[in-house]
Amino acid sequence: MLSKKIEKALNSQIQIEAQSSQVYLSMASWAENQGFEGVAQFMYAHSDEERMHMLKLVKFVNERGGHARVSSLEEPSAKFGSFKDMFQTLFDHEVMVSASINDLVHISLEERDYATHNFLQWYVAEQIEEEALARNILDKINLIGDDKGGLYLFDNDVKQLVGQQAPPA
Ligand code: OFO
Cβ of 122: how many Cβ atoms within 10 Å? Predict the structure, then answer.
């Protein structure tokens, strides 16, 4: 059985994962509008992944006798300036998510909820992957700068990353 404190913290994480999915969906749509098919595919897949992260939490909360909530979300930005800005926003967002997962892990230990602690280890590992991937992409885009030919190749490169984003659930 989940304590009220853990249930509340897990529900906040559900909202963060849902918000992440919205933000990446908006990035996908913006990239698609700019004609960057690879980046758009990558962002659509990333958005789906965040929804999967959210669903995993929803099911866990309900299985443990809590009530998973579906809350309202903020409208994400529709424009992201440049691809560099967009991937910087993605990286910053993932760092924020990691901090939130760390807080959750801390609360699970305080509450002596070892089942939740164990469940959260998947998210800890996932955040290491996601931050590394975002950093890797940012490094590439920093090398390219505003070079159009470079961006074209980058778009193709990013396409290859689709499907490699997630470790098995
Ligand atoms: Fe990209 O973050 Fe979910 O967990």
Answer: 15
Pocket of ligand 1 (CB under 6 A): 17, 20, 50, 53, 94, 97, 123, 126, 130
- Relative to the CA of 130, which ligand 1 atom is closest? 1
For ligand 1, mutation pick of 53, 91, 104 (most atoms within 8 Å of CB) = 53
Distance CA 71, CA 67 (A): 12
Over the chain (169 residues), the average pLDDT of each successive run of 10 is 96 98 98 95 97 98 98 95 92 96 98 97 96 92 86 88 62
CA of 53 to the centre of ligand 1 (A): 6
**What domains, with CATH codes, occur in the chain?**
4-69+81-164 (1.20.1260.10)
